[in-house]
Structures are given as structure tokens and as C-alpha cells.
Amino acid sequence: MVTTCDLARSFPESCSEPKFGFMQGVGPLGYSILLFQTLATAAGFDPLKGPGSSCLAPDASGKCVLPWGNGTKSVSSVILIASGVSFAASTSVAHSTDLEL
Questions:
Q1: 28-43 and 75-96 are packed helices; what angle lies between their axes, rounded to 10 degrees?
Q2: Under a CB-based contact definition with an 8 Å cutoff, are residues 64 and 44 in contact?
Q3: Burial class (CB in 10 A: 0-12, 13-18, 19+), 20
Q4: Cβ count within 10 A of residue 41
């Protein structure tokens, strides 16, 4: 299989493909955020109906929140925070082990 980097041998600085398969989002780690969002949605509740309600109920409002500190935070916000923390951790691990990205 010919890759973009194979075609750009004369301009190696233009090669931007990741060097490792795990960096491309392929495999079980690529689906972990989807699984986390599914579990968070199942654990959350409809803010208009209050705690104990389900975000997945047929009559749900389409909004879903989770308990967060002394209040609540939307599931989408929790997912964005988790993605940012995950990215920071993976970047620091890659940097500390001198992996070429």
C-alpha cells in the first residue's frame, strides 16, 4: 500500500501521517470516548424532570445532565472535559517517551 509519505519522499517535511497505528484512532481506544458518552448518558437525568428521570425515556426533553460538584453539568460538557484531559495525558506520555508523532 502506497501512503502519502511514500509519495512525498523528496519533501519529507510535508509528510504528516502518524507513525504509529494507535495514534490514528484505530482499535478499541478509538471507541472509548463513544462508550464513555453512552454510559454517561445512561447515568444522567433529564434536567426538566429532575433526578431519577432518564435521558433515554421516550418523553425526555433531549437534554441530559450529570451531577457535578454542587450542581449539574451537561453530558456533552463532561465528554469535552474528559477528551481534553485524555489528550493532555496522551500528549505528555508521548512526549516523555520521545515518540515521534
A1: 150
A2: yes
A3: exposed
A4: 17
* 15-62 pLDDT per residue, tens: 554 554 445 555 566 678 888 999 999 999 999 999 999 999 999 999
Burial 88-99 (b: 16+ CB within 10 A, else e): eeeeeeeeeeee
What pTM does this model have?
Answer: 0.64
Please give the single-letter amino acid code of residue 25. Answer: G
